[in-house]
Predict the 3D structure of the following.
Amino acid sequence: MTNRLFGDDIQLDALAKAVGTSHSFELRGGYYDFSAHAATWGTDAAVTVQQLMPDGATYVAVGDGLTADGSEKIYLPPGMYRFAVTSALGADAAVRLARIPLGA
């Protein structure tokens, strides 16, 4: 799984049949739109955002995660994060975290 960074946004493509975690990435914090799409979702498929804890080794899920096409808005403090995929997704699967700008 390879992350692509676009300014304050991060996207993970080519998730078909990928299970596990992505590379870690740093976020500056704020409100984010977490979205996912896959041609098919397996019975136990889920995608979550995980935050690195202060011990520098443990990641925990933040937000509710996604088990079907959709999105959720979550507040993320500055820190290190990664995506986790629990079960294989169908073709053209992708997830994205897009920072929501506040007060222009």
